[in-house]
Amino acid sequence: MRALVQRVSRGAVRVEGRTVAEIGPGLVVLVGVRHGDTEDEARFLARKVAHLRVFPDEQGKLNRSVLDVGGRVLSVSQFTLYGDCRKGNRPSFAEAAAPEVALPLFETFNRALAEHGVPVQTGVFGAVMLVEILNDGPVTIWLDTEGLRG
């Protein structure tokens, strides 16, 4: 699984002109699922996001997590994180898991975040979404379970 984590002052998701999720300060997490990912990886990634220290302390050092600052997470499924552009200019999404595999793992990830105490809102799985991200910092972190456990 992959997650692109952005510290935000606010984030929102709109579907067909309607706001379906909105957060103030916290994290927008774009989540990709590939073939072979497991529930253990979803829970591991959720723990990592919940405890990722990307918020400043009193000295301005990135020593606080979203839990420490009372922030929220806006979680958005995004199969394009597994876009492979090594050949040509059109991405291949062959590594991305099919929706019937990806949706349960995306839901496991979000449940695990909530179990860690992080308030979570989500986009609409499989929908065409307008995602508003007001990146704060900017702070953007790439997490991939394949590299995190090695």
Q: Which features would summarize this protein structure in a list?
A:
23% helix; 8 strands; single chain
Question: Can you give me a brief rundown of this structure?
Answer:
The chain has 150 residues and is of the alpha/beta class. The chain is built from 3 helices and 8 strands.
What does it look like?
It is a single chain. By secondary structure, the chain is α/β, with parallel strands linked by helices. Helix content is 23%, strand content 37%. The chain has 3 helices and 8 strands. Strands 1, 2, 3, 6, 7 and 8 form a 6-stranded mixed beta sheet that branches. The protein has a two-stranded antiparallel ribbon with strand order 4-5. Helix 2 links the parallel strand 6 and strand 7. Helix 1 packs across helix 2. The protein starts with a strand and ends with a helix. The model has no long low-confidence stretch (mean pLDDT 96).
